[in-house]
Amino acid sequence: MQYSAVKSLLQETAKSMKKQGVDVVANYPQILADDALFDYYVEALSEGLELNMKDEFKTMSGLVREGILAETVYGFKPQAQLILPVFRKMWPALVAREALTVLPMEQPEIIRPFLIAVAKVGNEEFDLPNLQRDVSSATQIGVTAPALVAVPSVTDLLAAQGLNPSQAHLQRDFQIVSVTFTTDNGSTTSNVDILVEPNEEGMFNFDVELGTSGLVDHVSGNVDYFKGTVTVSNTRAGEAERVTGISIVASISGFEEMYANKISFKHLKIRMNAIDHEVQAEWTIQYEQDVKAYFDMDVQAQLVDTFGNVIALDIDRKLINALIRETSIFHPNAIKTFSKTPDANFAFGRKEWYNQIVVQLNEVSNQIYVDTNIGVANTIVANPLDVAILKTTSDYSFKGNTVGGGAFGNSPIAGVLDDTWKVLSSPVVPQGNMIVLLKPENPDHAVFVFAPYRPLTITPFPLGRKPVMTFLSRYAAKFIRHEGVGLIEITN
Prior knowledge:
Elements: H1 3-19, H2 28-33, H3 35-45, H4 51-71, H5 83-93, H6 95-99, E1 101-102, E2 109-121, E3 124-127, E4 139-141, E5 147-150, E6 153-156, H7 157-160, E7 175-183, E8 188-196, E9 203-209, E10 216-224, E11 229-234, E12 243-252, E13 255-256, E14 259-260, E15 262-273, E16 275-282, H8 285-289, H9 292-295, H10 297-330, E17 335-339, H11 349-354, H12 357-372, E18 379-382, H13 384-391, E19 396-397, E20 413-417, E21 421-425, E22 433-437, E23 448-461, E24 468-479, E25 485-491
Parallel strand pairs: 1-23, 17-25, 18-21
Antiparallel strand pairs: 2-3, 2-15, 4-12, 5-12, 6-11, 7-8, 7-12, 9-10, 10-11, 13-14, 16-24, 18-22, 19-20, 20-21, 22-25, 23-24
Helix pairs in contact: 1-3, 1-10, 4-5, 5-10
């Protein structure tokens, strides 16, 4: 939203409020004090915002209002009527708002719990979601590698899991998937894949040819599903050339009364403290004396347009630098490099070469999925010069604001890549650093939290020869899961 649009919005808002019988300048304290008038005022200011952002803006405007009212204890300041218009310009332009999880704070210091689901399977406990473990079914044996049972032997599979028949039983999915045997007078050990399933009584038997020697070992046994034991024997027990073991996969019942799989919940408690973010504006004594200048629509539009941009950029710069710095330190596994110069043996031109950046993006996204167990990355934040690379790819589609897009427009959204990543553009992102991050829908899965406390206020300090008007934003910012962010480092 550029200067002309700002001025038009302020004019239309003033007209709307006059229809309610109040003036946005003369009656501003009344607007703040009256819930209905304030809601009408915010509704007028939010004109032009998309539905989701409009709801967000209204919520945050309530926090701004609380800050203004708290400051009027010592007298109402005429500059206060600039705060919400500046906030209207600043808030939609924030990359932090679009890329990070926004959780408003009601106090300057809070302890925010983030819910963590935990599965309890038998005597084990692990965080959810988990890519390797089953929760809704039984405890599995031999998932990553089949479990070895010696031949001959009687093996208690329940005891190996710290269980007994009063707690759990074996399920009837028991399988023998390979055998180990010795040949050459016992000097050579070999493995052969097989698939043997016990009958309904748990009995099994099969023959194993011992290499090329012509010898055959007969293996037989029984699975006691209730007791959880496997009894196995062979006809060549004691011989040098014989079957020495079987590899099995099985599972333990997860629905027994004393051994039910459970999901419980914990809270990861994170302390969050609001910090002060200040931008000061100086003007002359003459300008200070001319109070009417605050109420002139042209001056208001200039102030709103200028300071809305400056504050948004400054907040974004601080948070984006934190993203890059901490990801470089704490999540190096999710950092890839892409060169804008095609490889010497690449014969399809620079445009086709730029399509290869999607490969690195997928690798980073998948690494984030593996490390968080939440989901793949869904947001890219980059400098406009690096976004230009994405725009040349075949998978890029535009879904942004062409006129005022980027950090100086209504929204920093520049487009969508591969129907997977929302692309955000901001000049405060250092060129050559493309941030790839996960923004989950569930706030309990937050990767990086941006928590506004007093989103914006203005305080005049005319104490010296040069009066100063301070734009103050108070918020907390906290990395919750470093593994939810990666980087593409772009080189020439």
